[in-house]
Amino acid sequence: MTDKTDLIQPDRGQDAIPIHLVNKDGFADWAKKLSSGQRAALAAQKFEGAGYQHAIVPDGDGWFVVGGVANPDDLSSWCLAKLAEVLPEGTYRRADGEPGAAMHGWQTGQYRFTRYTNDEKAQGPRILLTKDVKRIEPAMAEARAVKLVMDLVNTPAEDMGPAALEEEFERLAKAHHAKLKVTKGDTLEQEYPMVYAVGRAAARHHAPRIMHLTWGKEKDPVVAIVGKGVTFDSGGLDIKPGSGMLLMKKDMGGAAHAIALAELVMKAHLPVRLHVLVPAVENAISGNAFRPGDVLKTRKGITVEIGNTDAEGRLILGDALTRASEENPELIIDFATLTGAARVALGPELPALFTRRDETADALIEAGKANDDQPWRLPLHHGYDEYLNSDIADTNNAHGNAFAGATVAGLFLDKFVGEDIDWAHFDTFAWRPAPKPGRPKGGAAYGLRAAFHMLRARYSGE
Description:
Mean pLDDT: 97
Number of helices: 15
Number of strands: 20
Strand content: 15-25%
Largest sheet: 9 strands, mixed
Distance between the termini: 30 Å
CATH superfamily of the largest domain: Zn peptidases
Number of domains: 2
CATH architecture of the largest domain: 3-Layer(aba) Sandwich
Structural class: alpha/beta
Helix content: 25-40%
Radius of gyration: 24 Å
CATH class of the largest domain: Alpha Beta
Low-confidence stretches: none
Oligomer: single chain
């Protein structure tokens, strides 16, 4: 949950436990500098310099840490993450250099979701010192954004419904002096008919809505961020099996990414006119649920035949993308936990990326590689447009074969993005099924850092 202590702090020469980083190739030469007793301590702990290994080494009246990494001269985000998880509470510094990119995993490695548990026995913070003070605030902002995604996605649907997402927007607006408009009820039905139709079956306290936050100077380039906010997905009348619902609290993962990215943009004071739109619904079942075979109106004016009520995320995104396009943005980025097909193709860790422009895809991929958050591009192949044909409406929301599911979902969204607008769509899982250092099991941010660093490079030249 939210950090109570800054885990990265300026190094002003205060007492701290040294961390030495070595790899397998350099370990033998490094160990020659140690005493025989220290080498014996390493041998007793079977330390050989392999990745994520660590050992505690006595040193006079104190001790130091040695950790194994792939390359001590080029640290990734995760090189210190395991140490952050397993070391005792205390203050540490790297003995032979600065932590650099590894400041990120040092923070996320200490993440714990504690909203529903007694955390009295939790270990205290492990603080890392650095003399590279200019990197501290950006590193903490990124880690907090990632942990915000984790918190939001990990929270069960009863406590993270549309109203809770609205509260997150209210927090953002207040913190960053932004303007927030929330549309509900009859106005929602008139202005965002697909959002209303998908969410109308939910209980009153989970009633559908769309949040629209604006920030920045009107003269600056318009950038829109859109996130899918399905706070729970039963599948609707095309109901999911019980096993398919177990993780559906995470179906608002796109909204979580949008909120976190918006906060990063505002904290960095990027020179953009920001529009953030999140349609928030629960895809529930009741007597007034929308049905397979229904034809829905849309904000765009086209009609949509419902081939599958479990393809609801693209419906609410369609109305939100239409509204975002009305601002004539220079760029739209959307995040959505949209298709199982993307996970079959790429697994949980690689978010599927769809763009209209090659240069936008290249920029996002390079930003992701540089920050250990790589997306993988899939095609918006218009040869599959015919899969969405309808006999009675302008389009169907789902296709009847098992081919190219992620691409076809992207093609549906493409219908609602304004002509010639630069658009990037992330089909992200927002969940990590098994832990890795710095990346705990549960809610996860995929594509968030790639998108932020691309935006920062594009609008601030950094």
